[in-house]
Design brief:
Structural class: alpha+beta
Strand content: 15-25%
Distance between the termini: 71 Å
Largest sheet: 10 strands, mixed
Number of strands: 17
Shape: elongated
Number of helices: 16
Length: 496
């Protein structure tokens, strides 16, 4: 619940401008709360497990009973260090906890323990792709803090219930500069950050359970004007709702300005049923929270050897893995980024290449046909019916000329549906071996040329696309068994 830095006018002058919406530039910054994957809370030993009965996982410290004192969870600090290392941030050797004062029924102490002036993680960047264009968002900070409880309204008539199970749950709040210039860029950033925190194991990323919650600060301005007044959309817990909420908020703000009304700084909520945002309260600034150092917690000191030990235990990061794919396998940066969307997907690709698949062909199939089917089935690569070794076998048969693309798709379909499990056996069973009879292929070529005089004339007239039509006719007549490259060369020779 800190403030996205939205006043660095000098810094923003050089930032790239995104697509204009009705003549307005969109400015977006993010604050993301990542629940850390510790077994216990940030200042107590109470469990952080999800789904327990209300108020069964709140100890005396979480309830703020008199005489209790917070004790720092070392595991939470270590997870903050991991994020700093993953994002190229500065990890403060000394950071300070503060009391952030505000009054909600689900905040027993009347303040939240957070970090203000000296956060544990400072700076850093998140790079990602929007389509095939690479973008970079700068981070201001990531700081440790405790979560509040939860107010329950649905099950009580005229009253609210308070569940303090979440009180004291460790959070890392990750704050960006206002560097995003479109909804697409904002959603891509959120997905990339989600990937990173789950990849390094500091957060389970479960958005439905509130483990990864995003607040979007949105404003609009005419190009060249000073930054507009922002409104903060709170607790976006799905990428779909995130896109809908930001799109609506942009349209709403432009409508207000066009109608001559002034945008008031506010915290708003998104209603997925109506697709609209609505104001919840006037937006607080840092002065409203009356921060001061927490007298119960000493400064957090992180020794250099602790950082080095954590660094040595870190997995290969997605950006480093993508660079390796470009360097060692000759993949494009875009393809490498697609393959490193998750550790499981990258592992699948690595396993296929290890089993003998040509990297580029394997990449094409994983990001193409495989991705299409996974999306349609709404499953992850871990649940894919086609295993990496099977894909490698399929790719090898494409590379050695045994399978044209059309026949390869038939084999993939059989593997996916469980009709078969061995590529070579499926090829035999479906009679998909390529046409090796030169005489039969020559006859098909002559028949296709005779029946498609218009395409022949267009090709001889300089239209290269006409040749593709002829190749398609030959492939159809051969039942997909002819080699497209061979057919192309033979047609060129016959039509020369």
């Amino acid at each position: 619940m800190s403030e996205t830095v939205n006043t660095f006018e000098a810094q923003q002058q050089g930032r790239p401008t995104g697509p204009l919406v009705r003549g307005y530039e969109v400015i977006i910054g993010f604050e993301t709360h990542a629940q850390l994957s510790t077994a216990s809370k940030i200042f107590s030993r109470a469990s952080t497990a999800f789904g327990a009965e209300p108020n069964t996982q709140a100890c005396a410290v979480d309830l703020a009973l008199p005489g209790t004192l917070p004790v720092m969870n070392k595991g939470a600090v270590e997870r903050a260090i991991k994020l700093g290392l993953a994002l190229g941030s500065h990890i403060a050797p000394r950071s300070v906890f503060a009391r952030k004062n505000y009054f909600y029924p689900d905040l027993p102490k009347g303040y939240q323990i957070s970090q203000f002036e000296i956060p544990v993680v400072q700076g850093g960047v998140v790079s990602f792709f929007v389509g095939e264009e690479q973008k970079t968002v700068r981070l201001v900070r990531a700081h440790l803090e405790e979560d509040a409880g939860k107010s329950l309204h649905e099950d009580f008539v005229g009253q609210s219930g308070i569940d303090l199970n979440r009180a004291g749950t460790p959070l890392l709040e990750i704050v960006t500069e206002p560097d995003m210039r479109s909804t697409a860029e904002a959603v891509a950033y959120a997905k990339e950050l989600h990937k990173i925190v789950t990849w390094i194991g500091i957060c389970d990323g479960n958005m439905q359970e509130g483990s990864f919650r995003c607040d979007a600060n949105v404003s609009v301005r005419r190009p060249g004007e000073k930054l507009g007044t922002r409104r903060e959309i709170k607790n976006l817990n799905s990428f779909k709702f995130m896109q809908q909420a930001i799109d609506y908020e942009i349209r709403w703000q432009i409508d207000e300005i066009e109608d001559g009304r002034k945008i008031e700084q506010a915290t708003v909520l998104f209603d997925p049923d109506t697709g609209e945002t609505r104001a919840m309260r006037a937006k607080e600034d840092s002065a409203d929270y009356r921060y001061f150092p927490d007298p119960d917690l000493p400064p957090l000191v992180i020794a250099a050897d602790w950082i080095e030990r954590v660094k040595a235990e870190m997995p290969e990061l997605p950006r480093a893995m993508a660079e390796r794919y470009v360097r060692d396998h000759g993949l494009s940066e875009y393809d490498a980024a697609q393959l490193t969307q998750s550790a499981a997907l990258a592992g699948y690709f690595d396993e296929a290449v290890k089993a003998g698949a040509t990297p580029k062909l394997a990449s094409n199939w994983i990001t193409g046909e495989m991705a299409r089917r996974l999306n349609a089935a709404e499953i992850g690569i871990e649940a894919a019916p086609v295993k990496a070794q099977q894909l490698a076998q399929l790719v090898k048969r494409i590379a050695d000329g045994t399978l044209p693309n059309n026949a390869a798709r038939q084999v993939f379909e059989a593997l996916w549906t469980g009709e078969g499990s061995d590529v070579d056996a499926i090829i035999e069973a479906k009679d998909l071996k390529p046409m090796n009879d030169a005489g039969a292929l020559d006859k098909i070529l002559d028949e296709v040329i005779a029946k498609n005089a218009k395409n022949v004339e267009e090709y001889r007239g300089g239209k290269e696309k006409a040749l593709n039509a002829l190749v398609g006719q030959v492939m159809k007549a051969s039942g997909g068994k002819a080699n497209p490259a061979q057919v192309t060369e033979l047609l060129k020779a016959k039509l020369a």
